[in-house]
Acetylglutamate kinase (Dorea ammoniilytica), 1788 residues
Amino acid sequence: MDKNMKQYLDKAEVLIEALPYIQKFNRKVIVVKYGGSAMVDENLKKRVIEDVTLLKLVGFKPIIVHGGGKEISRWVSKVGMEPKFINGLRVTDEPTMELAEMVLGKVNKELVQMVESLGVRAIGLSGKDGGLLNVTKKYSNGEDIGYVGEIQKVNADILWDLLDKDFLPIVCPIGLDDSFHTYNINADDAACAIARAMNAEKLAFLTDIEGVYKDPNDPATLISELQISEAKEFIEKGYIGGGMLPKLNNCIDAIENGVSRVHILDGRIPHCLLLEIFTNKGIGTAILKDGDEMYSNK
Amino acid sequence: MDKNMKQYLDKAEVLIEALPYIQKFNRKVIVVKYGGSAMVDENLKKRVIEDVTLLKLVGFKPIIVHGGGKEISRWVSKVGMEPKFINGLRVTDEPTMELAEMVLGKVNKELVQMVESLGVRAIGLSGKDGGLLNVTKKYSNGEDIGYVGEIQKVNADILWDLLDKDFLPIVCPIGLDDSFHTYNINADDAACAIARAMNAEKLAFLTDIEGVYKDPNDPATLISELQISEAKEFIEKGYIGGGMLPKLNNCIDAIENGVSRVHILDGRIPHCLLLEIFTNKGIGTAILKDGDEMYSNK
Amino acid sequence: MDKNMKQYLDKAEVLIEALPYIQKFNRKVIVVKYGGSAMVDENLKKRVIEDVTLLKLVGFKPIIVHGGGKEISRWVSKVGMEPKFINGLRVTDEPTMELAEMVLGKVNKELVQMVESLGVRAIGLSGKDGGLLNVTKKYSNGEDIGYVGEIQKVNADILWDLLDKDFLPIVCPIGLDDSFHTYNINADDAACAIARAMNAEKLAFLTDIEGVYKDPNDPATLISELQISEAKEFIEKGYIGGGMLPKLNNCIDAIENGVSRVHILDGRIPHCLLLEIFTNKGIGTAILKDGDEMYSNK
Amino acid sequence: MDKNMKQYLDKAEVLIEALPYIQKFNRKVIVVKYGGSAMVDENLKKRVIEDVTLLKLVGFKPIIVHGGGKEISRWVSKVGMEPKFINGLRVTDEPTMELAEMVLGKVNKELVQMVESLGVRAIGLSGKDGGLLNVTKKYSNGEDIGYVGEIQKVNADILWDLLDKDFLPIVCPIGLDDSFHTYNINADDAACAIARAMNAEKLAFLTDIEGVYKDPNDPATLISELQISEAKEFIEKGYIGGGMLPKLNNCIDAIENGVSRVHILDGRIPHCLLLEIFTNKGIGTAILKDGDEMYSNK
Amino acid sequence: MDKNMKQYLDKAEVLIEALPYIQKFNRKVIVVKYGGSAMVDENLKKRVIEDVTLLKLVGFKPIIVHGGGKEISRWVSKVGMEPKFINGLRVTDEPTMELAEMVLGKVNKELVQMVESLGVRAIGLSGKDGGLLNVTKKYSNGEDIGYVGEIQKVNADILWDLLDKDFLPIVCPIGLDDSFHTYNINADDAACAIARAMNAEKLAFLTDIEGVYKDPNDPATLISELQISEAKEFIEKGYIGGGMLPKLNNCIDAIENGVSRVHILDGRIPHCLLLEIFTNKGIGTAILKDGDEMYSNK
Amino acid sequence: MDKNMKQYLDKAEVLIEALPYIQKFNRKVIVVKYGGSAMVDENLKKRVIEDVTLLKLVGFKPIIVHGGGKEISRWVSKVGMEPKFINGLRVTDEPTMELAEMVLGKVNKELVQMVESLGVRAIGLSGKDGGLLNVTKKYSNGEDIGYVGEIQKVNADILWDLLDKDFLPIVCPIGLDDSFHTYNINADDAACAIARAMNAEKLAFLTDIEGVYKDPNDPATLISELQISEAKEFIEKGYIGGGMLPKLNNCIDAIENGVSRVHILDGRIPHCLLLEIFTNKGIGTAILKDGDEMYSNK
């Protein structure tokens, strides 16, 4: 067999190896929180969209939830707005909210465009469409930080109806309160709430870290599997800090409310989503139910 | 009968008068091009949204297509961008396109929000979602005026699927070309193309004029009905000028391609849509097929 | 604005006011017991049919149940039959039953015809069709009063199937017992049983009185809302007499078995149905669950 | 084998013989014009209803169209109405029309009741329900004979919708004109129009004669098969007279408009319908397309 | 009436007598275990297939489960294989299994062919198709008797899907274990497991005996009805022996798990299935729930 | 990046490369004629089944048509039957037909079993099931060669119904004539007829040769693309001989009757199907419409 042929056969084998995974996740909902470097680096961006599109084409039901943090900051400067802060937190006043919505809308349609260019039917939503995300005002230690919303209800029917018509929904985290005012929502929170409401099989966070560490200062302590009782213990013991704390709380919340598996993936690795789903290569940290094992019924 | 009761009975009679119209347009597609003053004045805005929502609730299938002209100009200034012109036409270069898309997206979701607040399921789309609007680059007398698109194909399936799931679609006129670049589209053109693709029963333009005049300088020459052969004659004779010319060409195009009736309505009159549909009060100018009469089979 | 225009705008406002009600009762079943003067006066008749047809067209699911008392009496005389009485009650012997069925059938198709003339698909049923109403013989204080039936079972599937095919069902109160003999049924009883079996949102009785009075001799004591515990108390205290007693018992029974709201309307007021549903004008007496308030979630 | 067993086996064989016919008419529409003696004699009545019910249960789609001639005459006398005649034809004035509708309605529900008692879901319709039969006034040699209608349009959707919900439709020949006035229709005409509109597989007339004779005075000339060109020839030659002439014209009309086979059956023979469909016993006269043979593809 | 006519009318009466049974079993699942003489005698074979095909055509949902015992033995000899025995039981080693599968497949398609020739859509399955029958290895008193399977799970979806597409499923008793090895299954066991999984209305065993006897040596003690507590008592008392014991246990198991009625029929009587279902002639023994009576609600 | 990680990323890239192909063949029917070495070598067998199962899982609609030549020969010897020949062709007499059907049935269920073991719902059919393949007797130069059938009609509904229920159909080439006798069919013919009847996107023959050669004696003359006019020219010029001639005629026939692309693949190359569909590696010979190019719209 010539070397060329060998290469082709290797490719065929890779496809065949994907077979049990394709079968396992057939028609399952997979929520992908898309953010961080993977949203800034054009190359990584393309990889993520390819991954999600492939998931859709082989029969899964992926839903993308994205943020737009850095792009919002860029526009705030561009427009020359003066940021206000309370307790060190940026206040989302009316003009900031307006601009944030515009930027998130732009990012949203850009993702739609990328998915469409790969031949898959995408639809871009904010939490306003079909009343998808209903929120109440969120306070930070009792202080008013403006139009920041806490999700009260996800109108999952909207997403089921769109999945039913074979759309790939792409959601930006904007919501409405009962008086139909606009609120910004933390994208991790939105992804988690949507995964819960859809009883998702998987919720995957694309982040800028390798995963959860026992000791954040020691890369060698990266944890590949974490059952939720362990996760809670870690939090109690104060191992978990910074941005990871709310994220891990979201993970625990998701697992306790019907999501089967949550993953904190390193979005800086190209195709990290495919690697997680189609190979037995551990990418980042998987949060599991107590008693579950990662590769048992993966 | 006391006076109070009399008032109530009068109200009941108004509802009953609507009966034949509700029946006539049951399950029919009605495309509303929403623009002009009716999009600026908060009071008129509310009236238009109430009208369209009512149409939806009584069983019609309205689709809103909107522009965002004045708001785009406001943001262009705000951001401090320098406008370029060719042949007196604004050039849509990349930064302008990006900003226009952001503004249109904002306007789009604001309309979604208003419809949702009235209890109807809306969904905001640009022509990117589901590949709704496919365009090619449009030139102005052979000059490159940037990312201005001419619609080649409307993917009507997307709209049918959303109507099927009982959404009220709200569309902003952004499209993609075959290389998946973003283009701005004239909102009148988009409304007309969508009405054609959906074989709409009605296409209504909300404008800032009373209608078509035989002599634009003489308000007394307002025409309430215009069969398309007359419309063509008017154009040939040079009676029609300014912004009305392309609009009237759009009307003719729509009627010749399957739309039953086109209306140029005065969007400055509150509830002009309801008045046109539910009463025999002539509002603005109706463009008809040759041989049709306005109130014959309305 | 000229006076004419003002009038049109007022009309538009009336339609817009109906919006929240149209939304609230969308796809809800509303059973209308049609009888009394509203069935005799040609003008009132037309109003009732217009009202029900409008309810159908704007998306509700009305079902009409009608009697035919006066018309039956007219035909009994016409044919020269000799009425028999027991305990002062007319006995429905075989010839009377035969004639009653003929008259009710005639009235039934006449109503179908009126609805059809307004462009809505009606279908006239007796309780024989599809085995809709199953009865047993009813005795009056142990005395045999002939073919008078008490409903044992409503075959609600029949009505759901017809609603599913977008018919407006019009039912006359004739039923079959287990041996397939024909029985006459009190129309109020039939309406109540059907409303229960369909879990109707509303059951409205068109009557010839203004509503329930605390003191029937004092029109000023008309009650606009009555929670069922109050209704029971009134009955116990003997405030309620005559034909109102069984009607009120029917109302209580309906509310206790899944119907949300029951109304005793004055059928002599034109469009009383529309007024009740689309305005906040109290027409007649509403029977509510304990704790409910009339205009809270109307 | 004992004699008893022999009998049982013979019964099984009869069922097995029905197999090819059950298969052939599976899901086919069969219109039965029910009238004459078979509607008067209680014993024959029961047989007809059993037959049609069996056809329904084994998977055919029968539709009954019935008249009520003798019963109408009986009631005209009973009520003491004075018949008017023009050219020897009874005039259907308003009171006659009213009574006729009542009687037909009574007969209609009686048939519904008989079918229901055999466990099959029947629904009784007049041509008013769902706008089933649209008519214009029919004149007799230019003379006004009152409310006698000629069918212009059959709204077949109504029947398809009811068949779809597994009802056995039973239709009485009453129709509405464009002004929604009530008209009486000849039952043969109604059956023929319905069979045409439904593209029925079979149209069977239950009559009081054995079939078509070459020579009406000679029973030996009974014709068992008649191709339509022969039928036309017979008519031209004047062989056909009396009530048979319009019936035969109806048969020809049906065959020329999509009905596969028309039968003139002797309704005085019990189970004539079953015999015609499930055996090769010729009952009455079959009207065929030219070139068809009766038992070729039966 | 001539004698010929009399005969036809008798036939019609037989069909009419079938009416209540056709109605009773409409859309009900009936599992027929087909085996014994009825599978060997060409004449009886034809009768069984006619019976099942008729059941299908009149709206029941029959499923055939068949064995192939004698034909397997014939081929074992033909191929010259040496049978092995343990405890007097034939051992199903690999070559025997292979041959058994081939023979059962042949018998299966032969039955398909017979049903198809009667114009009904049949499909032949083994328990491999769609993973219909999942088994574990069965031991005989702890001894390994080869590839003999015990059913663990019936994938009823497969059969519902095929019934939904109007197929008549014909199943041969082959199954797969969790490692996807092939096993032979006792046909009685397979029929019983399928009847349970489908909540069949009836399970009928075609056997070579008249039924269950109180005293197997005295034909006069044939029992026509047996409630399951009696059946259990008979077994305890040792009245039941030989091949009847496992069969009766299967019957009890079926009744206790959702099957309404089980019949042990004498397959040597032509059309025994039709006789059992369409007449009140007791054929063989019916196993009933305690308290049920045979002809009460048959 | 460590070497391990590199490997994983390469795998992800392979999956991504498959994306356009997965999209292109989404919901398309692909008929695979399975035979030759690929059916004998256990290793190759596993590869083919993996390939087809993968095609099913990623959303294609594959149908397998298989032969069983060598296995039939093996059994003919085993049973000790004496082969008869006419014109050098084996005669399919009744005993041979019986045995062939048994062997094909065994092979068929073995393939079902393999597909099931990969978690996909398979169903094994012969042309008898649902009357799938209707044949007439085929003669060889006028000589009777026994039960060899020529396909007259493919009942494609059967396959559409099974695809609709998400089965992977596996068909063995047995058919019935109008008298319901069993016939053997050439598997290539069956695959071709099925591909035509289903308007398949692709028909792929797994063979034991590399493809079509211009000069069969010179491996260097392998043709990778052949437009049908060229194919016909090759045949006329006598370049094509042996078993390739009828195969190539089948290819031409398929292309001329609605199949988009036919492939003669070398079944001895593992995963040849995947390679053909998911890579741009030319495997074997593709037969195209005139004017088509292989990789233009692949």
Q: What stands out?
A: Chain D is about 40% helix and 25% strand. Chain D has two domains: 27-35+62-186, 201-298. Chain D has a mean pLDDT of 91.
